[in-house]
Structures are given as structure tokens and as C-alpha cells.
């Protein structure tokens, strides 16, 4: 079966006073129907920009889609008109962003905002429409949904607002739910509740999920497949357990090493890898992580590695010239 989403060769740039920012570089990946893909990577790795480009939401200018296709359910989103894309967004593809641009409108009641999505994408009217609005708030675990419909976003807590966003994202039973940092601003308890909710929605409706986060812990809990991005490229990708157990990219290894323990997590301390992210207006010539990678070779500094199969686990791929498990094994030998 063809994948539900198939992104091919997507390249996105921004024209800035500092020069051309190479935000997304020949990005290709696919998501199977029913799969949950977790995308991680430090700030600026191109996670949001590639989604915005795909959904027709990239600010152009300064943004520019240099090349690429994004096949969704047999149609190339890149070829669609604004009108066609508007029909897909919120309809077949639900979106939950932390970004205020697409979050709730403060001057409209929550009911009104839910109604707008439903009216645009379904033919529900009257009591059926209202019943669906109430049902959606129930699905996302909002108590007293009838009364809540007439309230404004500021009358909801952060966690409840995020649930409303998910209700809107899920309103039209999308085939694909795209969430970008949807739980980042929430405390750990609320975050855990939202993740439970998404798991439930997947189970009940078979929704395919693309979940973008900074948090490896969230990926471990929610995703089937992890995709690690850096410098607008995929560094590593594969089924969650094998990638966590045996990372092949030094970047993934760094992210996992710096995974905070429960205490640090509660304080929301983020991971730390030595050095800073690349300046994408003047990106490294070779492997973008090479300047920060203690295992980098001459070749890493000069040549971009292709994404290759790791070998033993189907679907586990890495973009690296070096053999990380072998290097780590050597280190262990020396340490003995
Ligand atoms: N409007 C813009 N103008 C210029 N550069 C931009 C713009 N939006 C994004 N970029 C650049 O594109 C690159 C990718 O940014 P993107 O927002 O996709 O990162 P991200 O992985 O989503 O990071 P974060 O984890 O912080 O959300 C960065 O170098 C960023 O500075
Ligand atoms: Mg982002």
C-alpha cells in the first residue's frame, strides 16, 4: 500500500539580510497509514518549516519552496491551489500547533471556533452540528462541554485550551493529525493526560499522527517511528526501540545521553549537547552535525552523508559516514 504521506526532496529557503537560510534540505520521508511518527531535533532543525511548507502556510516571502513534492493520499499538496489546500487543512489533515498564529482566536467563543471548522469541512447543521461540538469536547475530556462551548479561550486553563485545539484538530476525523510542540508549554501532568488522549484517539479512530517535539521522552511514549532532524536534514530514523537502544547517529546518541531524569524533567530542563546549532545561512559543508561531533572524520566535514540502511533492523536508517556502534564498542574496550 502507498504511504499516507510521502514527502519527496523538499527544499525550503528563506531570503534574509544575512543571506539565504537553508532551512530544509532535500527532505524525503513517508508516513504509513496508522503510524505515529515522532520528529525530534534541536531548535532550528527545520521541523516546523517543512510542515508549514507542506500545508501551504509558509510565509512567502521571505520563504521559498525551491523543490519538492508532498503526496497525501495520492495528491501532491504542492500542486494544490490555496482553496484546495484550505479544504485539506482542518479536514483530512488536522493540525495542533503551539504557534499562536494557528491557535485559538481570543475574541471568539470556543464553540464558535469549533463550529467554523465543522461548517467548513462537513455538512452538519442545527442540532447535529451542536451535538458534534459537544461530543468533540467530551472526547478530549473537557468537563461540562455544553456550558464550555459558550466560553472564551481565556476562561480555559492552558491544558484545557490545548485539549480544545486537539478537539478542533480532530473535529473532522482527519486521516492525519499533525502536532507541532503541542504539549511543550504544559506541565508534565497535563502533558501526560494529553498524550493519553492522543493514544486513545489513535486506538479509536486509527488516526495517523505526526508529532513534533523537543522531548525524546514523549517520542518514546507515543511514537512507532522516530525521525531525528538536524540542519534541515534527517540524521536518523527508524522504529523507536532499536533507535533508542542502538543509535547510529552521534546526534541521536547525544540527545539520548542528555535525556533528563524524572527530577530534571519536572523542572523542564532541556538536554545539552556541546556547541551550538549550525548557522543555516552559512551551513557546514558536509554532515551538519560534524563540527559538534567528537567522532567526526575528515569526510564528515566535507561530504554530506546519504541516508543509508543500518542493516539489521528494517526501516532503521542513518546519515553518517562513521560506524557509531563500532566506535562506542571500541571506547568500552579501552575503558575496561
Ligand atoms: N520567517 C523566517 N525567516 C527567516 N528564517 C526563518 C523563518 N522561519 C524559520 N526560519 C529559519 O528556518 C530554519 C528552520 O526553522 P524551524 O522553525 O523549522 O525550526 P524548528 O525545528 O521548528 O525549531 P523549534 O524547535 O525551535 O521550533 C531556522 O534556521 C530558522 O531560523
Ligand atoms: Mg518549530
From TrEMBL:
Q: Which UniProt keywords apply?
A: ATP-binding, Cell membrane, Membrane, Nucleotide-binding, Transport
Q: Give a GO molecular function annotation for the protein.
A: ATP hydrolysis activity
State any GO BP term from the record. Answer: transmembrane transport
Q: What is its main location?
A: membrane
- Taking the record's annotation, the residue ranges forming a coiled coil are none
Describe the location of the ABC transporter domain by residue ranges: 7-256
Subcellular localization: Cell inner membrane
Please name the CDD domains in this protein's record: ABC_NikE_OppD_transporters (cd03257)
Membrane topology term? Peripheral membrane protein
Q: Which NCBIfam families match?
A: oligo_HPY (TIGR01727)
Name of the molecule in the record: Peptide/nickel transport system ATP-binding protein/oligopeptide transport system ATP-binding protein
Question: Which organism's genome codes for this protein?
Answer: Pacificibacter maritimus
Q: What is the lineage of its organism?
A: Bacteria, Pseudomonadati, Pseudomonadota, Alphaproteobacteria, Rhodobacterales
Amino acid at each position: 500500500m502507498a504511504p499516507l504521506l510521502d514527502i519527496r526532496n523538499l527544499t525550503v529557503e528563506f531570503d534574509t539580510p544575512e543571506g539565504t537560510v537553508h532551512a530544509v534540505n532535500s527532505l524525503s520521508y513517508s508516513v504509513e497509514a496508522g503510524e505515529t511518527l515522532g520528529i525530534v531535533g534541536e531548535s532550528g532543525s527545520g521541523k516546523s518549516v517543512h510542515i508549514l511548507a507542506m500545508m501551504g502556510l509558509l510565509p512567502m516571502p521571505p520563504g521559498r519552496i525551491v523543490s519538492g513534492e508532498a503526496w497525501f493520499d495520492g495528491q501532491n499538496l504542492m500542486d494544490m491551489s490555496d482553496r484546495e489546500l484550505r479544504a485539506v487543512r482542518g479536514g483530512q489533515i488536522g493540525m495542533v500547533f503551539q504557534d499562536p498564529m494557528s491557535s485559538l482566536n481570543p475574541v471568539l467563543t470556543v464553540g464558535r471556533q469549533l463550529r467554523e471548522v465543522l461548517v467548513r469541512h462537513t455538512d452538519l447543521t442545527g442540532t447535529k452540528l451542536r451535538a458534534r461540538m459537544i461530543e468533540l469536547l467530551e472526547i478530549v475530556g473537557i468537563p461540562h462541554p455544553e456550558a464550555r462551548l459558550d466560553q472564551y479561550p481565556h476562561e480555559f486553563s492552558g491544558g484545557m485550551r490545548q485539549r480544545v485545539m486537539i478537539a478542533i484538530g480532530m473535529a473532522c476525523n482527519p486521516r492525519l493529525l499533525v502536532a507541532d510542540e503541542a504539549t511543550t508549554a504544559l506541565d508534565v501532568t497535563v502533558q501526560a493526560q494529553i498524550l493519553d488522549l492522543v493514544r486513545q484517539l489513535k486506538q479509536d479512530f486509527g488516526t495517523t499522527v505526526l508529532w513534533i517535539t523537543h522531548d525524546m521522552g514523549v517520542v518514546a511514549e507515543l511514537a512507532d517511528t522516530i525521525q531525528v532532524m538536524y540542519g534541515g536534514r534527517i540524521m536518523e530514523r527508524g522504529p523507536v526501540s532499536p533507535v533508542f537502544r542502538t543509535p547510529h547517529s552521534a546526534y541521536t546518541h547525544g540527545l539520548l545521553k542528555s535525556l533528563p531524569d524524572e527530577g530534571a524533567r519536572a523542572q523542564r530542563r532541556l538536554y545539552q549537547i556541546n556547541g551550538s546549532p549550525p548557522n543555516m545561512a552559512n551551513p557546514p559543508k558536509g554532515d551538519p552535525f560534524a563540527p559538534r561531533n567528537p567522532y567526526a572524520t575528515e569526510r564528515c566535514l566535507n561530504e554530506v552523508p546519504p541516508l543509508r540502511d543500518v542493516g539489521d533492523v528494517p526501516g532503521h536508517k542513518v546519515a553518517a559516514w562513521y560506524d557509531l556502534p563500532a566506535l562506542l564498542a571500541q571506547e568500552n574496550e579501552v575503558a575496561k
